Prior knowledge:
Chain A is α/β, with parallel strands linked by helices and 258 residues long. Chain A has 7 helices and 13 strands. The chains are: A alpha/beta (258), B alpha/beta (322).
Amino acid sequence: MNIVVCVKQIPDPASPGALDATTHALKRDGKLILDESDAYGVEMALQLVATAGSGEVYVVSMAPNGETSGMRTALAMGAVKGLLVSDPALAGSDALTTAKVLAAAVNKLGGADLVITGTESSDGYTGTVPEQIAECLGLPSVTFAKKVKIEGSVLKVDRQSESGYDEVECTLPAVISVTAGVVEPRYPSFKGIMDAKKKPLDVVTATDLAVTPTGWAGAGQKIVNVTQAEARKAGQVIEDDGEAFGKIVAFLENLKLI
Amino acid sequence: MTINNVWVFAQASGGVATTGTLELLTKARSLSSKVTAFVGGDASAIAASLGEYGATKVYATGDLTGKLPGVALSAAMKSIIDSGDTPDVIMFPQNYEGRDTMARLSVKLNRTVLTNNIDIADSVDGVVATTPIFGGNILVTTAFSGQGPHLVSFRPKSFAAEPAGASSPEVVAVTVPDLGKQGGAKVVAVHTEQSSGPKLDEAAIVVSGGRGLGEAGNYALIEDLAKLLKGAPGASRAIVDAGWVPYSYQVGQTGKVVKPSVYIAAGISGATQHMVGMKGSKNIIAINKDKEAPIFGIADLGIVGDVHKVLPKLIEALKSRS
């Protein structure tokens, strides 16, 4: 059971986002960390391999600037090997190019029984990359998995739906995207962090993987305008003195809702 | 470019076209006189209402017999396009089926996707779509470059659904091609979570709880208050991820978009992810311990206080009135 987890390294969500003044792309030039929503996929992969009793967990990522710190976090959790596709020419890539690059990276690792992704990244949230990777690889897929197990060569997934969930069975190899909360990601141990520094992490370019064109040149889209939305203004803010509930009652009365 | 042919990814729920579908059709008919609704399923019950909102033609695949929609519907769309009906724009709803289908189709057609939009226009820059970012504080307008079909998805409630008058569109049956290995996923059972009261995205009053409630058991306060106000209970992503309430309760970027008359946020600090889903509410009431919480920046009435004290008193006060 070999599993490849696709991870994204993003700017720390705790710091406010900004757009580049010229390209209008999201600025990603500071320190990047492992997208929290990908930690679930890494954990899921580690648990599935542990249950299967054999196999390895690999991680792949794409970044224009050679960033690896987020991938090292995944290695520290227990993945054994990483492959980073890094190339300045990748800057400005759209979701389709991203999927082509990640699919090529999976193939470069010799394919996988299962490819795991998050449902969408926390910074760009286009949300199509998992299914696009599956299509590039010619594989079946189950998106929005909230519970996953493997029985023999059959993947059994509880897939979130608008009104509840569907039980889905799928042949392997396959691609799944997992929701946040599917498992509780482990914290890397001190030993894990030390070991991760020595684990293999290869870096290749998009050209090495024969994916062209990439970046701005390959993107089928161009930002033409950025404007400030009409801001919603703050109203009255009061400290609760034990009677503040009355303000809410009066507010609702005023609107004739009670 | 001129938009001559628009497709809308149409969905039904309980035998009627979804509100989201009617919203997209309404917008589609303002872009083009030729509007086609693509239905991944049986269209006989909904064709008339699709026509009423602007569809001049309906493609319908019939029952998917357990196939997952992404693979099956993208393959069906591709086969129609290959046979000569090429849309300039395909409008998708921002939900599971829409998202998966447009993603698969984008690879088949080698076209980019623009997701999470709230508007679309035919402009000097070509077809442009607008998406809100950073919690809706900034609007980014992006143009498609190159040839169509342009694949674009929209957040719920981006457009108002307005009927155009009765019409009976032509309904054309479409066959889902053999999916080969990619069709390896099958739905074997469907589970629907029961809920009483109004639907979260249609309720006039929404009461949502967040991490500030402290523990799962305290969510009962939210449910009690919602019931008293004949509203719907909602939740922040944090407590959905923590497993306190099902995903169907989630309000925000990755959950439901709500625009009620009153939105009450209790113990919710106001992460960007959450605010995107509720800042269109007509009135917002926030209760939070932390007076620096971002939610107060958009609240019409903000109470800096402990939800465990404020909510029980509020519930008592409302009960004593009824």
